[in-house]
Specification:
heterodimer; A: alpha/beta; 7-stranded parallel β-sheet; 6-stranded parallel β-sheet; 14 strands; 14% strand; B: 483 residues; 5 strands; globular
Chain lengths: 505, 483
């Protein structure tokens, strides 16, 4: 049996990034434990390439295809009417952003003896499922396009039903790294095998989905009705957001322990329905010792150049366009500046093409270089400043890695960036700032921050000292690994899962 | 999260709706057209041969057997192919038509040759006559199928140029050759006529539709996808013809030839005349289908496609239901009026057509049965239209049982009541059919939406599931990468 099974969606081991690195770090840092991964993929057809060298203690990995629409056969037994009365409150609640009655729905959907009472056909095509759909529509969406509601319902529910039939390896501890589908799967696993569920949120899944759904152009925004001046996000975007909010609440209720990286996230978790007490903050950690040792330099030393580095994926959430605009302002005043954008660009080729077009349009072809995926350890020592213009972040590991190399950071005020740069608590703050915090999406402020560091080498040096000390004292990987090792051992020693929380709102 | 689009099944799109509509309308034409032409052919031949002897009777009964049995045996093929062609038309795969026709005719030829040979071996006639009778059986079956093609492909002009002309030619040739070569001559004439029909129709179809291969067998999978469709057609035709055939083997039926060629000419003749009373109503139904029903049907699906709230979709469905109900009632009144007229003038017809009293009673009985029969036909067409094949099958089965029970009862009641089995069977079939039809229309939103397939659906493969019925794919097991 596995010691710990992670539930991953769009992260480890196929997508590199903060969460993936964190999972890899935990597995490689605890060679005495046996790990497993349940990876939620959109489709089996989707191309995936492993971005990490899988550690030997990764014993099992299962892929589950969320949006491969397979009408799989169901086994059903028992009273369907009673089962519907158990499932209906849960399904209705999910569409209102509530996560209640999961326990009752679970027994109907998974069955007491492993034989579900409602089959997939019952849930998706039966008269009872239609009546439930009508009830939700009539109560909440009666003026909206029915066909759009129907398809939203169906596409939202399909993965929901399918997850209850997922193959889940047995483990002593289940660990979800987001809420949403992963969180629900964690809740199912916890009940199926009577083992505790842990939840660690880096970025907030609900928040990220909210941003994504708000920008989605495939979801219908209904026209304003007579006398209505604004429609806001529209019926269907709200419906999808509610779904993820509801799934989040299920996970908060079912998880025995909830962790996050920093205080800002904790407050948001509470806002999204997590219990106010009992959320523990365990910040990210990096291998300070290894990262502090100077690696091989990727770029030749050039004292006449001022090098600014960005490390991360070239994706909209990193707001690369603001960084490019800031680079233009800096380049106008500092001709010797060079920007290195280090990270994979294949995740969103369209966005990458837009960024390249912007670079060409602003005449920055000689200033900005996209390196693609590289060993960033060889780049940190070459940079003078690190910059991060994300519109959403958790606790970016790249800032900590840069700190290890004594690299000051200019970062937007998202996630844990402020407390990482300016300090968390009096002891930390006393070390002084390790960079500059800017407003989100503000190219001019970002440029001015870079320019201020360029103009004042003494300030850069001071910040470098603070950065090194901060990461050594508060973000060392050893502390992270010790904390989670203890948590896993305690959870694994439990005879079974504890009852779900009742008070999650 | 994947970018998920919203799409309804292709058939609810405008072009597809039209395709389905026309497909099933022509299935109606296929249902009525051959019947009407059969009736006309037989009535004409029978009228011309009336005063002649036994040999003519043999010819006439062979023709009745050929026409009646081929209509029953080709019904499943006709309906399946009509549905398949409607789908192909919607997908604009025109090159599939001719290969489909070729494969259907091959299957039909083999099937009917086998069935015809099996039957004719038991009939005590000479080998030449056996050969021509089997050839006619095969050719008439092919003709029905070609006509179904012409209807499904909307190549209506070919109906006039080939089928009607060919039928006329075959009647003429049969009559002319029959005068010199007796039954052999009649049969040869009919065979020649049917060959002409097929030759003209196939040549015209081949000229109009391009094809890139000889055969297409994909239509056969519709037997698996919608088994109730061919069964409903088979049982419906079997029911209607059974009300006639039943009496061939009854106490008044007699052997035209030793062994199995039984007949009861009295009811055959009366039935054929009576069946002509449905022609005006079928024409009215055609007009109705092309106009108001199609508009309402399209209106319902358009209300979904144009993203209306449920309330408006329901209104469109109610409008469809009420207007359909009113139209069907109007069609019923038309049929009642024609039937009342036919019954009123039955004595005059008796004098004009030299009927005996038995024939007049049976004419009356079948006329009465034709009222529910034509309404049942409309019900079946509309059920096919909404793809409610199971309901159509139930209605056909009830009709079949009703006709069977009715025919048994009339045997006890005496000759005056012969033919009333159709009245009972078709009435019960109508009752079941319309109750089911309107119940289904009442839940049309549910039926429409719940049958929608998921976009980019993946076919279930048992390897996707483990022994516990759980889905997923193991990538790493015991530390070893499997994929």
């Amino acid at each position: 049996m596995l010691d710990v099974l992670f539930f991953c969606e769009g992260t480890y081991p196929y997508v590199s990034g903060g969460v993936s690195s964190w999972i890899h770090q935990l597995m490689t840092g605890m060679p005495d434990l046996k790990f497993g991964i349940l990876y939620l993929a959109t489709s089996e057809k989707e191309e995936r390439e492993c971005k990490y060298q899988l550690p030997p203690n990764l014993q099992e990995m299962v892929e589950f295809y969320l949006y491969d629409f397979v009408e799989f056969p169901g086994h059903s037994a028992g009273s369907k009417a009673r089962a519907w009365s158990e499932v209906a409150p849960f399904l209705k609640g999910i569409f209102s952003g509530e996560g209640q009655s999961f326990d009752r729905a679970y027994s109907a959907l998974c069955g007491e003896q492993g034989v579900p009472v409602l089959s997939f056909h019952d849930l998706s095509r039966s008269r009872a499922s239609w009546d439930l759909l009508l009830e939700v529509y009539e109560n909440n969406f009666r003026h909206a396009s029915f066909s759009d509601f129907f398809w939203s319902w169906r596409y939202a529910h399909y993965p929901l039903y399918k997850l209850f039939s997922a193959r889940i390896p047995q483990a002593r501890v289940y660990h979800a790294v987001t809420t949403g589908w992963c969180g629900l799967l964690g809740a199912i696993a916890s009940r199926r095998y009577n083992r505790p569920l842990l939840l660690t949120e880096h970025g907030l899944y609900v928040n990220e989905r909210r941003i994504e759904i708000s920008q989605a152009d495939w979801i219908l925004v209904d026209a304003p009705r007579r006398g209505q001046l604004e429609v806001g996000l529209g019926t269907f975007k709200e419906l999808w957001i509610n779904l993820f909010l509801g799934l989040g609440k299920v996970c908060y209720r079912e998880a025995e322990q909830i962790f996050t990286l920093f205080e800002g996230n904790r407050k948001l978790q509470v806002e999204y329905g997590a219990p106010a007490e009992g959320i523990e903050i365990i910040p990210n950690g990096v291998n300070v010792e290894a990262l502090s040792t100077a690696g091989q330099r990727a770029l030749a030393e050039a004292p006449d150049k001022f090098r600014v580095g960005f490390v991360g994926r070239i994706v909209p959430i990193k707001d690369i366009k603001t960084l490019i605009k800031a680079a233009r302002i800096v380049a106008q005043q500092v001709p010797e500046v060079e920007f290195y954008l280090c990270g994979p660009a294949e995740e969103d080729p369209e966005y990458f093409a837009e960024c390249r077009t912007l670079v060409d349009a602003l005449g920055l072809g000689q200033v900005i270089r996209f390196t693609g995926p590289v060993n960033v350890r060889d780049y940190y020592p070459c940079f003078d400043v690190q910059v991060l213009t994300s519109i959403s972040e958790g606790q970016p590991l790249v800032i900590l890695e840069g700190f290890c190399a004594g690299l000051p950071c200019v970062a937007s005020d998202v996630g844990a960036c402020r407390e990482m740069i300016l300090g968390r608590g009096p002891e930390d703050e006393a070390l002084g700032p390790a960079g500059v915090v800017t407003w989100v999406g503000n190219a001019r402020q970002t440029a001015e921050a870079i320019l201020s560091l360029y103009r004042d080498p003494g300030l850069r040096l001071k910040m470098a000292v603070a950065a090194r000390e901060r990461v050594r004292r508060f973000y060392d990987q050893k502390q992270l690994l010790e904390s989670y090792h203890r948590i896993y051992q305690e959870a694994a020693a439990q005879p079974g899962r504890k009852p779900a929380r009742a008070g999650v709102s | 999260m994947a970018g998920i689009g919203f799409k309804l099944r292709a058939y609810t799109q405008e072009g597809t709706l039209g395709g389905l509509f026309r497909g099933y309308y022509h299935a109606a034409l296929v249902a009525a057209g051959p019947w009407i032409l059969t009736v006309i052919s037989l009535v004409v031949v029978q009228y011309l041969m009336r005063v002649q002897g036994d040999e003519t009777r043999l010819f006439l009964e062979l023709i009745i057997y050929v026409y009646s049995w081929t209509l029953i045996t080709t019904a499943p093929l006709q309906l399946v192919v009509t549905r398949y062609l409607a789908d192909q038309l919607d997908a604009q795969r025109l090159s599939a038509h001719m290969p489909t026709l070729v494969s259907v005719t091959v299957i039909s030829a083999i099937l009917h040759f086998f069935l015809g040979t099996l039957f004719i071996l038991f009939v005590d006639i000479n080998w030449f006559m056996r050969f021509t009778a089997v050839a006619l059986f095969v050719l008439v079956a092919e003709t029905w199928l070609v006509m179904a093609f012409i209807g499904a492909l909307r190549a209506y002009h070919l109906v006039a140029s080939s089928f009607v002309t060919g039928t006329a030619v075959s009647l003429l040739a049969a009559y002319t050759l029959g005068r010199y070569f007796s039954v052999n001559g009649y049969l040869m004439g009919m065979v020649a006529g049917q060959c002409a029909v097929l030759a003209v129709a196939l040549a015209s179809l081949a000229r109009e539709f391009e094809f890139d291969r000889s055969f297409n067998w994909t239509w056969l999978r519709y037997f698996r996808l919608a088994p109730a469709l061919p069964l409903a057609g088979l049982v419906y035709y079997a029911s209607v013809w059974m009300t006639l055939m039943f009496y061939w083997w009854g106490p008044e039926g007699y052997l035209i030839q030793p062994r199995i060629l039984y007949a009861f000419p009295t009811i055959d003749l009366a039935s054929f005349y009576a069946q002509m009373t449905i022609i005006p109503t079928i024409t009215a139904f055609y007009v109705h289908c092309e106009t108001s029903f199609y508009e309402d049907y399209r209106g319902f699906y358009n209300s979904i496609l144009t993203k209306r709230p449920l309330e408006l979709i329901r209104e469109a469905r109610k409008r469809l239901k009420f207007r359909l109900r009113d139209s069907l009632f109007a069609l019923f009144l038309v049929q009642v009026a024609v039937t009342v007229g036919a019954l009123t003038f039955a004595p005059q017809l008796q004098l004009l057509l030299h009927w005996n009293d038995g024939e007049r009673y049976m004419f009356r009985n079948v006329c009465l049965g034709a009222v529910p029969q034509v309404m049942l036909l409309f019900c079946q067409v509309i059920l096919f239209y909404f793809q409610l094949y199971r309901d159509a099958l139930w209605s056909s089965l009830v009709t079949f049982l009703g006709c069977l029970v009715g025919a048994f009862l009339t045997l006890r009641m005496g000759q005056d009541s012969y033919g009333l089995g159709l009245l009972l069977g078709a009435s019960l079939g109508c009752l079941v059919g319309y109750i089911r039809l309107f119940r289904q229309i009442d839940q049309l939103e549910y039926l429409t939406f719940s049958k929608q397939p998921m976009a980019e659906a993946v076919e279930f493969d048992p390897s996707m599931m483990d022994a516990q019925g759980h889905l997923g794919r193991t990538i790493v097991q015991n530390g070893k990468r499997l994929v």
